[in-house]
Design a protein that fits this description.
Order of helices and strands: EEEHEHHEHHEEEEEEEHEE
Number of strands: 14
Strand order of the largest sheet: 1-2-3-4-5-6
Shape: globular
Radius of gyration: 16 Å
Structural class: alpha/beta
Number of helices: 6
Oligomer: single chain
Largest sheet: 6 strands, mixed
């Protein structure tokens, strides 16, 4: 793992802590009950919550913004950011799109849905496509809608590092676009995937896996 990038051991989805000159960037925050998990990780690395200057939520699914409200209750100084569309859902404590499952798949979603149910959280800052965040030599905000209507990724040209949220699925060494019942628009998901692969990243830190170029 890059010494500037910390991978929090996931419970469901990955979260990433990125060191900057004045503090840390936290990319996604995990499940609704993951706050204790985050605090434990920070304590083990001698990092305080107050050192996190920015939280970026890639998209409004419960395994990505789940404990944001609890983080904010404990550290009001933390600034949370997302795209306009995802921000609206996060501030209502909802996902930004319905799931498309039918039959047994719908039954499964109904059963596990309560585990992903999250408290409404405040979004302090709306991220603009093309905006550069001051981490890893400059992290560019990418429009990677498809998995959800306002999904964002972050790209560092200087370090060839991509934070892809759920816009890229990692299956061993294979990279795939978001697809299936939890994908809002399959065509846009493929377009977002192809755009990101064309960047030729050396490292992809996704919502459910890490990929490194050989």
């Amino acid at each position: 793992m890059n010494q500037e990038i910390y991978l929090l051991p996931p419970t469901v989805a990955h979260q990433y802590l990125v060191a900057g000159q004045n503090g840390y960037l936290l990319i996604d925050v995990g499940m609704p009950n993951d706050f204790a998990h985050l605090k434990k990780f920070l304590k083990e690395h001698n990092i305080s919550l107050s050192q996190i200057e920015l939280v970026v939520i890639t998209h409004a699914d419960g395994d990505h913004f789940g404990c944001l409200a609890e983080i904010q209750d404990n550290t009001p100084s933390i600034v949370a950011a997302a795209s306009t569309f995802e921000a609206k859902a996060i501030q209502m404590g909802e996902s930004s799109r319905p799931l498309k499952g039918k039959g047994l798949r719908k039954l499964m979603y109904d059963l596990v849905g309560p585990l992903f149910r999250s408290q409404p959280a405040k979004i302090d800052r709306i991220l603009v496509i093309g905006e550069i965040l001051p981490f890893l030599g400059g992290l560019e905000v990418l429009d990677t809608r498809g998995h959800t209507p306002g999904h964002l990724s972050l790209w560092s040209e200087s370090t060839r590092t991509l934070f892809a949220g759920d816009s890229i699925k990692i299956r061993g060494k294979n990279l795939l676009p978001s697809s299936g019942a939890n994908t809002w628009d399959d065509a846009l998901a493929i377009q977002a995937f192809e755009m990101q692969i064309a960047l030729k990243p050396d490292r992809i830190y996704a919502g459910h896996g890490v990929w490194m170029r050989d």
